[in-house]
Amino acid sequence: MAFEIVESCVNCYACEPLCPNQAIYAASPHFLIAADKCTECVGDFEEAQCVGICPIEAAILDELGRPLNPPGSLTGIPPALLARIDQQGTAAVL
Ligand code: SF4
Ligand code: SF4
Fold first, then answer.
1. Which residues line ligand 1 (CB under 6 A)?
2. Number of folded domains in the chain?
């Protein structure tokens, strides 16, 4: 039972001091979570602290590899529109 930080992490340091178990650490090319220390904040907080503070969608995954801040959840931009921007470029969509 542990979360994972992946390559979309921008190394902003916001999550690291909030972890009650000191499970998050700076690494290259991005921050990581020590799986043997992460408790998903169970017993300490109702919400996973790293997930609550992270400003980047899909930077933190659950134990099944699912993004905890999924696309669109922080920006409000519908994933379908993001996909169109990726395919066509911003100018073509707007
Ligand atoms: S879910 Fe909680 S325990 Fe796990 S890395 Fe994030 S802040 Fe630390
Ligand atoms: S808050 Fe998110 S983007 Fe910032 S260091 Fe942690 S995982 Fe990376």
1. 3, 18-21, 23-24, 33, 38-41, 48-50
2. 1
